[in-house]
């Protein structure tokens, strides 16, 4: 979705939201300003869904033993370290364990899409579901304000009451080792703390909206291939996608993705 189209949707949503579903601007902006110094709000526990499917109800503090490798998620998302410097670095193993794994319990995953842009590069990805299209547009408006404040632009697609958000940093950097053994910074694409910050802010806004609209829903935990626990796991899954993909998507796109994959191979070896 283009920035112009998203801005139009945000403006339309802001003009049309009803008092029942509307966010208070001061409340929303205050939440965004304090997001780095406070835990994400977790709604009260509700009855867990029955059956053996790997599903989790929104706001649950636990996941059924049969799901997500029998892991029990923390009651709230952890505090985030603020990004350091003007060059956002790609995630490390520690970032995955500390910050991304808690998102797995809320339906997030790291996807490498063959068809949806950006193609053949890892993205932090989630499908949000809403009570109705009005609630969805309220969320789009809030995320739009967040995007402007952060100057960071996720890929967003939606239909009726479902919204898919994909996050990656177009100008990311990763430490490498040059031929003479000294460290250098190389430019690439990848998931950074900027993306994790936006995912956490989106979760915060979604929690608020679910309470505003009395909405509770059950979402699937992503497959293990979309829940890497290290850069090595991520690189392996990425390589499998590239190896089994034809080049009909466009030589430039495919070659670029392979170059980014090679850079991450160096990153995985270095860490």
Automatic annotation (TrEMBL):
One of its GO terms (biological process) is tetrahydrobiopterin biosynthetic process. It holds the Pfam family Pterin_4a. It catalyses: (4aS,6R)-4a-hydroxy-L-erythro-5,6,7,8-tetrahydrobiopterin = (6R)-L-erythro-6,7-dihydrobiopterin + H2O. The keyword Lyase applies. This is 4a-hydroxytetrahydrobiopterin dehydratase. Belongs to the pterin-4-alpha-carbinolamine dehydratase family. Residues 40-74 are annotated as: Disordered. The keyword Lyase applies. Keywords: Lyase. Coiled coil: none annotated. GO terms for molecular function: 4-alpha-hydroxytetrahydrobiopterin dehydratase activity. Its EC number is 4.2.1.96. It is an enzyme of class 4 (lyase).
